[in-house]
């Protein structure tokens, strides 16, 4: 290296590695929230860079709504195994059974039900820190959040009273029962994530690339038609999330830009077949990535309200 | 990246200044005119305008993202936004002007390399403008722009602009040195001189605000003198799949200053043991040399006792090493700072106990003069203090190195972060006991 200069991706990378190592050093039982999505894929590569040749000193945790894209689950499990990591999965179904969570009558989306499941897992495993892949460019409440985001004993975020976060001197101190959420990708943009995936040659689930899929129109979104319900006698888990007679459905050449579950992920029409195609598409996009997600559209402050209640 | 392309430079900047001077509006304008606003964000903005703004779109709402902020029309906490132009990438921190949220202004400014201080052309420089200028200077932000805003409300008066500029220039010598200072007359609301030149200021030669942000010389605002490596995490594989790594023992961290090379002699502080760099390990392969702020794993020739909180340093120059420290602090807690108080002090990768041994002075923001021997520092005060730590720190003066010269204080019990501290240069350097080392 002749000139002592980092380009913007190298700068973001070293910042994130520093954050991950602070977590490993300052917390007793940290977990990485790993969904198999593009942001958490980057987190895993950064964790390799932070901790190799040692094992990544953190458990992987994923909260399932029960409406996941099967491609994503396969990818998640395989990746965790490749990295020799312990993966813990907790589901909304279990939580409903145990009574940790209660469904809102008439509500099909299980997005909000992830909150008690996450808090239950934190309690069960005594995690003092959860690392998430959220970025400040995604949403206006996230734009306000710290790298080390303090949560009280109820898992709540208090946006009006966040700890000052000066330089890169992260205050990781907690009292018993309190919890930290840490976001190493805080300063990354969607473009940075894809450029990093390209640079590092990272594998991503194939639903990020253009493919053919049966979709239907609901509100201003094209939602994927859920898998066929085969187990007769059992309730259809996608009850209410299938196209009705009036809703237009058609086969589309599409991909996902951001992944929630099948009920809240809008498919976007796209011919993007490669990472380069995606980078070009994102650069030209006129809507934000979360513009395709139903969970954020619930209200103007949907994200802020969910975070106050303990969301990722 | 093709060969002809330069690596994209990243500039981190923040806006500050007094309440309602137009900081958030300016960022909104910058995002809007640089086409960084997406259609769904614009729709949301228009929807909120219909509800709260009587149909008038409020650009400040692009960054004022919290419920409470929109209700009150003020900024409470920093918002981070991202702008990319063909020339540069920007990480923007929009900070609050209200004095009670000074801690959040410090948060947003602490990682900035350039600070835009807004001044309302009607009101001129007021106390909060002075406080934010002083904090920006104390934080060692090298570049500063004074944006004289709301020029539309003073009839684009050149005289008013000059008056404000002269006033600021007269107090600048009392602040720590900025590398460069710029004055720009703007209207954030209407966009004059923000991204495009205004025909209302023929007397102003330029540049536009964005033009300056894109061209200000920022190469190497990092410190490349004096190797400093605070050990973050000891890298010791428990059951390596690769047998050759069975005895691997490396020290992981982010280089906080200078350059390190293989075979270089280093000191481990505070123990004072000497060793040589055997390998600079990274997941992407070993390096011959590494520099600030890279994150690497250093393997030493000798098997020394090194753990988190220790610092590997180069010999030229050596850092300070003391448990008796002098520092400037920004106090951010409703409970005042008085001498005798005890806190946790986080510096680099180590946390120690610290006691305030004396309050030397408090800065009077109206005059920038120090008032000697104050009884206390209250919230939002800036002052000079002396502290004693339970273990000596390995440090540099903040003006030499922002990473090894900074600390935060944490209140015991509540764990609240209560102060940002900037260390004065050490009275003397660490004296190695060895006489046989070669520089
Ligand atoms: N006429 C005029 N009004 C402006 C201009 N810039 C901002 N304003 C108005 O000034 C008011 C305050 O603007 P904000 O951008 O919210 O101010 P701020 O500095 O971010 O305020 P805090 O973050 O709460 O300290 C709003 O009503 C703006 O529309 C300008 O250039 N001209
Ligand atoms: Mg504001």
Q: Return the structural class of chain B.
A: alpha+beta
How far is it from the N-terminal to the C-terminal residue of chain A, by CA?
39 Å
Q: Largest sheet of chain B, if any?
A: 7 strands, antiparallel
User: What share of residues are in beta strands of chain A?
Assistant: 15-25%
Radius of gyration of chain B: 24 Å
Number of spatially distinct domains of chain B: 3
What is the name of the CATH class of the largest domain in chain B?
Answer: Alpha Beta
Percent of residues in beta strands of chain B:
25-35%
Tell me what you see in this structure.
The complex is a heterodimer of chains A (312) and B (439). Chain A has 312 residues and is of the alpha/beta class. Chain A has two domains: 8-194 and 302-309, HUPs (Rossmann fold), CATH 3.40.50; 202-295, no CATH class. Chain A contains nine helices and ten strands. In chain A, helix 3 (70-82) links the parallel strand 2 (59-64) and strand 3 (87-91). Chain A is globular, with a radius of gyration of 19 Å. In chain B, a hairpin with a 4-residue loop joins strand 18 and strand 19 (369-372). The model of chain B has no long low-confidence stretch (mean pLDDT 93). Chain B has helices at residues 23-33, 39-52, 67-72, 102-110, 127-138, 158-171, 209-215, and strands at residues 9-17, 79-84, 88-94, 114-120, 143-149, 180-185, 228-230, 233-235, 250-254, 259-261, 265-269, 273-281, 289-291, 295-300, 311-313, 320-331, 342-347, 350-364, 369-372, 382-395, 406-410, 417-423. In chain B, 17% of the residues lie in helices and 33% in strands. Chain B has three domains: 9-215, Rossmann fold; 228-313, Translation factors (Elongation Factor Tu (Ef-tu), domain 3), CATH 2.40.30.10; 320-423, Elongation Factor Tu (Ef-tu), domain 3 (Beta Barrel). Chain B has 439 residues and is an alpha+beta fold. Chains A and B meet through helix 1 and helix 2 of A and helix 2, strand 2, helix 4, strand 9 and strand 17 of B. Bound molecules: guanosine-5'-triphosphate (GTP) and magnesium ion. The site of guanosine-5'-triphosphate has 20 residues of chain B, from helix 1.
